[in-house]
Amino acid sequence: MTALKYQLAGWRTRLLQIHPDHVRIARSAIRLSLFVLIGKCAGAFKEMAIAYRFGVNHVVDAYQLTVTLVSWLPVTLVAVLSSVLIPALVDLRRQPKEEQKLFLGELETMAIAVGFVFAIVLWVCWPFVLHFMAGRLSDETRELSGKMMFGMAPIGILMLTICVHAARLQARERHVNTLLECVPALVLLCFVLLWTNGRASAALIWGTTLGFLVQAVVLAVLSSKADHIPLSIRFSLRAPQWKRMYGAIGVFMIGQFIMSFSAPLDQYFVAGLGDGSIAALGYANRVLALILGMGALAISRATLPVLSEVLSTGDPHRARRTALMWSLLMLGIGAVAVVFAWLLMPLAVRLLFQHGAFSAENTATVANLCRWGLVQVPFYFAVLVLVQLLASQGRYTAMAVVAALNFVIKALCNYLFVKWFDVAGVLLSTGVVSAWALGCYLYLAMSGTSNKKATTQ
What we know:
Layout: H1 2-16, H2 20-54, H3 58-92, H4 97-133, H5 139-152, H6 155-171, H7 176-179, H8 183-194, H9 201-227, H10 241-259, H11 262-271, H12 277-312, H13 316-353, H14 360-373, H15 377-393, H16 396-421, H17 424-447, H18 452-456
Helix pairs in contact: 2-8, 2-12, 3-4, 3-5, 3-6, 3-10, 3-12, 4-5, 4-6, 5-9, 6-9, 8-9, 10-16, 11-16, 12-13, 12-14, 12-15, 13-14, 13-15, 14-17, 15-17, 16-17
C-alpha cells in the first residue's frame, strides 16, 4: 500500500511538472476532437443520405468531379492561408486597434476579389478541363457535371471568406470554427432528404452552395465578436502586414499549387477505369476523412497558435521540442488507430452506406479501398504537427520544395500503382507520399530553426 502511494505521488508530481504549452495543446486538442467528431458525424450522415438516394452511379460521379474542380484552386489557397495567416494574426494582436482594422478589412476584401477571379477562370476553362478530366465517363455524366458547375461556382468565394474568419478565431485560440465545419454537411443532408421537386441532382447543387453560405455568415459574426473588430471592406493594400506576407504566400503557394493537382490527378487516373470508380473513391475518401479529421485536424489546429506564440517570445528550441514530442505521439496514436480501423472497416462502411441504392457489393468495394487508404494515417498524423512548426518558423521555401517533391512522387506512384491495383493504387500512393513527407519534415525540423520575422519579411 505504501509503495502504491509513493507511485501515485510520483505520477502526480510528473503531471504537475508538465509544461503549460503541452497543457494548452492537449486542452485545445481534446476540445477540437469533440468538435471534429460532431462535424464528421454530420458528414457521415450526409454521405449516408447520398448513398441511399443515389448509390454508386453517374450522379455521384458528376457531383464528386464537380466539387473537386470547383474547390480545387480555393482549397489550394486556403491551405496556404491557414498556415500563413494564423502566425500573422497572432502578431497582429499586439498592434494598435486601427492597424488591426485596416489589415482585416483589406484581407476580407482581397479574399472576396480572389474568389471572384477563381469563379471566372473556372467558368471560362470548364469545357476544356472537363474534357481532359472526364476520361471514359459517359456523356450523361459530363453533361450533368457542366450543369452542376454553374450552381456551385460561388463556393470558391465562400471558402476564402470562411478561411479568413476561421483564422481570426484560431489566432485567439477560439476553435468554434471547427464545430461550424459541420454546417455545410447538415444543410446538404436536409436538401438530399427533403428535396422532392424537379431533378434530384439539384438537391446536391443548392444544398452544397447554401451550406457554405450559412457557414460563412455565422463565422463572420463570431470572428467580429472574438476580436471586437467589425466586418469592413477596404479597397487598398496599405497595411504593413502585407509586406511580410507577400513572400510567404508567394513561395508557399508555388509548392502548394503543384501539390493541389493531387486530387484532380487521382480522379484523372480513376476516371480512366470507367463509371462508378470516382464515386467509389469518393466514398472511401470520406470514410478516411472521419479518421484523419479526428486526430490530424485537431492536433494541427491546436499546435499552430501555441507554437507561433512560443516563437514570438524568441525561444525556437522550446518550440521544436514541443513539436517533435507531439509529432511522435501522434505517430503512435495513428498506428493504433489503423489497427482498430482495419478490423472495423467493413462494419463501418456497411452501417454508413449500405442502404437503398448502395448494395453489399458496393460495401465490399469501398471497405477494401478504405483499408488501402489506412496506410497514410500514422504518417499524416505526425506530419501535420511538423508542418505547423515550420509554418510558425516561416520556413515556407522548404515547405514549398517538399510539396513539389510530394506531387512528383504522387504522380509516379499513381502511374505505377493504378496499373497494378486499380482504384486502390491511388490510395496506396497517398500512403507512400505521406511516409516520404514525414521523413522530409523530420529532417527539416532537426536540421535547425529559423527566425520567423526574418524569413517572412
